Fold these 3 entries.
Entry 1:
Amino acid sequence: MRILFIHTIGKKKYGGGERWVVRAAEGLKQAGHLVTVGGWKGSLLLKEAERCGLQTACFNIFSDISPWQALRIAWFIRKNNIDAVITKRRDLAVAGMGAKIAGCKNVLVRSGSPPQRSIAKHIFLMKNLSLGIITNTRSIQEFYHQRGLDKPGFVRVIYNGLQLHDDIPSYNFADRFPGRRIILSVGRVVHAKGYFYLLDALALLKEQLKEIMVFVIGDGKDLSKLQKRALELGVSDMIWFEGYQPNPVPYIKGCELFLHPSLYEGMPNAPMEALAYGKPVIMTRVNGADELTGNGEYAQLIREADPSAIASAVMEFFSNPLPLKEKGLAAKEYVRKRFTKEVMIKEIEAFLMDTENIR
């Protein structure tokens, strides 16, 4: 099958959704399909796709009304005999119209989180321009069911699949931060990831836990605001913004604690990886957290947007780390069985075949 992923996002943005695209495209290619990843010219997404040996194409979708891009997509689909398109919710209006013009009806939408705005518009587009929705939590599936997308099999839960790197050595934080106890957080540096609340939590901890260092992997528009806020709170020596890293696994292996303070998620990818390597994890009880952690059996779940909850959980861990370390070790087997790349690819293939048969 010839499959085209269309996922346009800012050139410097590379988070969980983008990792999913590259991972899914790579897995489908390995399964024998001809796969192309489409996105903004010069974006990190396309660079990562190319690094993984994937074919790429440039589509610059800036709004729902982009007739020129819809025609370019239609031309690409016809020229390359594309059988199926997998796109994200915000690209569906243009990508779906391009597929429709080209006569390609097999369009799937990947929705890693429910829409927060223009819900009726998104539901209308999904009903009329796609044959199904891939999501990664049962709560998101239920969200769509309650809004009329309840045709059996239309919204399918396919859990994110892990790409394990057991052979990669851990990062030695002691070389750069001697004597510091490393807490790792991975995610785009934007308000939705909860880093402003994390800074407030560090302000509560700076007298009791002077030895901790929060090491943040990710880039984003709020970096300068966070750095300024850290200075104002007097915690700039307790947090380090490393920027984008293509593979966070060595850092995950080398940290003492993984912290995910996000305010809003689908299925959180970063803590999933941390659990897969047996790390103790503190994370907010956002959408998908219960499914990922067995309702808190394998990680400590806390309220979102609550600095005191973050501070208390971190203090509890460093006072008595054994219970959470035991949860992390138990999570390793649970997560590796439940969230595998192989299962994810087989389920995407099955969904594509089901929709191919009803075109």
Entry 2:
Amino acid sequence: MNPVVPRPFRAPRRTLPKSVTLAHGGGGSAMRDLIDEVFIDTFNATGGAPEDQARFDLAGLMAKGDRLAFTTDGFVVDPLFFPGGDIGKLAVCGTINDLAVGAARPVALSCAVIIEEGLPLDTLWAVARSMADTAHAAGVPIVTGDTKVVARGACDKLFITTTGIGVIRAGMEVGIGRARPGDVVLVNGQLGDHGAAILNARGDLALDAEIRSDCAALHDLIDTLVTAAPGVRTLRDATRGGVAAVLNELASASGVGVCIRELDTPIRSDVQGFCEILGLDPLYLANEGKIVAIVPPEQAEAALRALRGHPLGRDAAKIGTVTDGRPGRVVMETRFGGERIVDMLVGDQLPRIC
């Protein structure tokens, strides 16, 4: 996996104001200057005259697989910048991951932004550069997009929508309804980091803790996993609702039970302590760099070795198994020897975490 190495900064060719104005969404020269300077030049999104769409060679896509994957996601995180990432990195990684968990090789992204009047240009530029650097490191270009500016109060600073396309590997079939009794539940590392990092970054709690988001693009990790365990049945990134939501969706869709073990579930001590202070359950906290993988038992050890051999999977763990008892239920064996139901939340513990 390539590290995120920022590309050299290029000084702007035009003189832009210090903040975004409604004129930047009006379709005139101010809008063109903003788009050219902040987005097209930063993303290197077009090699010639800008068009209203990106164009792809079908033969090139078909060489990567036999089906197309297509996804879209909106990002409204508060704050825009947090330890381990920002809204731009989150948007790129989140969309890449939504493609990758479908066994697709990500090909390209689009980016649409809704900007509140008055947003500092330095903030917008920092987000755009972060998106460009993250996409460049992942090898997944941002090829098209859209920009809208709304009046003060009509949105909160900056909202981003990213859409991605990818090509699914020939012969790969993964899905939330494919789990079978006896299958093994794997995760690629420590859980709950992103949700805890966002809440801590808001500064309302004045807690002395440095928790970093796990925000990362996981397509290279997943490529390593499916090479070692081609029979993998389910892949999901555990974002809103955390691992608990993924396992409940899986149990319901597959008509199976899931049993996980608290002692085998990797959670950082500072995240665990953070949750205990606030009365939160880390199983429900969002992750932006973690997958849940359901693999047949005969491939579980090979899958675990492959995950642990990757930089984004060093703390990978087997946390449980799929069962034929209590269909639709997720149960945790606690560290005290008892059991508790891990149910689906009605809402979310934390709003605006992605």
Entry 3:
Amino acid sequence: MMQAQTPLFRRDFTLVVIGQIISLFGNAVARFAIPLYLLRQTGSPALFGAAGAAGLVPAVLCSPVGGVVADRVNKRNIMAALDFFTAGLILAFTLLLGRVPLVPLSVACLMLLYGIAGAYQPAVQASIPLLVEAEQLTSANAVVNMVSTLSGLLGPVTGGVLFGSFGIRPILWISAGCFFLSAVMELFIHMPHRRRQAAGGVLSTVRQDLKESWHFIRRKRPVFLSVMVVLALFNLVLSAALIVGIPVAVVQVLGMSDLRLGLTQAAMGLGGLLGGLLTACLGPRLQLRRGGAVLLSASLTAAVLAAALLPGISPLAGYWTVTAAGFAMMILSTMLVVQLSAAVQGQTPPALLGKVMAFIMAVSNCASPLGQAVYGVLFEACSPWAVLMGAAFAAVITSVYSRGVFRELGTDMRKER
């Protein structure tokens, strides 16, 4: 007699998903509005890129610490506490806006927002294997990723409409309310947790836990190191270029409105949502060893985006090409990220999962702040289409290098099954 399959959306996993929808929507709204407000007020792509880069530094630094905490503290408590703190942060930014200089206030707020997100995500990632069955990992990761992209879809649209009509303050109030509501909901999650003995003081514990995760990666899963290098290179040469370049292209080069920028970023969120949906539906039929081809496709799509900014292309045609290219790239990148997350979770012991995921996230993202700062200067000094075309070319080279890495990781994943 066949055993009935355990449903994916049980109570606690459903609460995590709903809490993520609300929290990430508030995050998407705030992270759309604050940099755009800074760009509108200063008109400087270099300052815009530098602010984004400064914001990412705490995310990289806090991610490994967040992984250590996620493996030792109840993950529900981490998520709720950080959401309460973020609600207070957005409220403080709202009250200080107009009373203190804009640039340091915006940079400080972005640094805290990204730092909190860096500490928050390892807890979410490490909670998934505790709430679903092993064979449901790919589908569960796809759902969580779809939630993130759905919030990324709705956040910029809402932010664009409100920003263009009422300014930044209503956006900030909505964001703070979302974080508070999410924190309250997360208090009702029942999260399995086994207390671990600390290895001395706080710093000693962090150092020992990070050493343990590094030893596991280096000795047991060295392919993870290669994956981190590939992702770091791709973040450096292409992701950072798009993070800075798409707002600059839409707002300054093509002369579009804040609402149009919101629609472009919403289309990218929709692409991520579709990528997650496709991954959840296809599941084991997807082959991670073809990850290099996915990155190559994204790189070539970025070249199309760059061509849309060439002189002689009408602003409206350029805008829709940029939007379509962003949509396509998000489909491809989301499908790859979901498969990578499931591969790491399936090949890592539960006691190390939070630290290993955080370690991979930190190393993969460490190049992004440098990339954003450099691209901010390049976009101010050079033609945006030339900068993006150069980034696409560098990404093609990285994609070709990555083919062997993804083949090895895909082979290891099949062995684990």
